[in-house]
C-alpha cells in the first residue's frame, strides 16, 4: 500500500464512521444505503469497501468507538476525584452523565439491536461486542467501588448488564418525554442506592 494511502486511511475511516452515524440516525440502519453514507462522507464505494465489508461491520466499528469513548469519559470523571474522596454518589454521577449527542447513537443502536433480534448471525456478533463492553464496565465498576470503600456482592458481569438495561430503558423514556424526564435523572436518583444494595463496605 502506498505511504500516502496509509496516512489517509485513518481519515477516510473516521469520515465514513461520522457519516454513517448521521445517516443511520436520520434514515435508519436498514433504510440507509452504502451509497448515501459514501456521498455524505465524500468518498467512493471503493473507499468504503477498503475499510468495511458491510453496513453491519460499519455499525460494529461505531459500537466499539462509542463504547471506548463512554468508558474513557467515565474513567476521566472518576480519576479527577482525589484519592479518598470518591463516594457512591460520585460513582453514580459519573455513570449517569448523558452527552447531548447520545440521542443519535441511541436511535442507531436500538434499531440495530432489533435487527440483531431478528437475525441470529447479527445477534451472535453483537453479543460478542456487548460482552467486551460489559467486561470493561464490570472491571471499571469494581475498581471505582473499591476506591469508594465498597465491594460488589453480586456478579460484576450481571451488575454491568443491569446498569446497561437501566441506562437504555431510562433513555428510551427520556427521549419520549424529555421535559418530564431529562436524560440521566433516573440514574442520578437511583444508581447510588442501587450500588449500595449490591455492595458492602470493604474491611479496613
From TrEMBL:
PROSITE patterns recorded: HTH_TETR_2
Superkingdom per UniProt: Bacteria
Annotated ranges, domain HTH tetR-type: 10-70
Keyword field: DNA-binding, Repressor, Transcription, Transcription regulation
DNA-binding region positions on the chain: 33-52
UniProt key word DNA-binding: yes
InterPro entries assigned to the protein according to its UniProt record, in alphabetical order: BetI_C (IPR039538), Homeodomain-like_sf (IPR009057), HTH-type_TetR-like_transc_reg (IPR050109), HTH_TetR (IPR001647), Tet_transcr_reg_TetR-rel_C_sf (IPR036271)
UniProt protein name: TetR/AcrR family transcriptional regulator
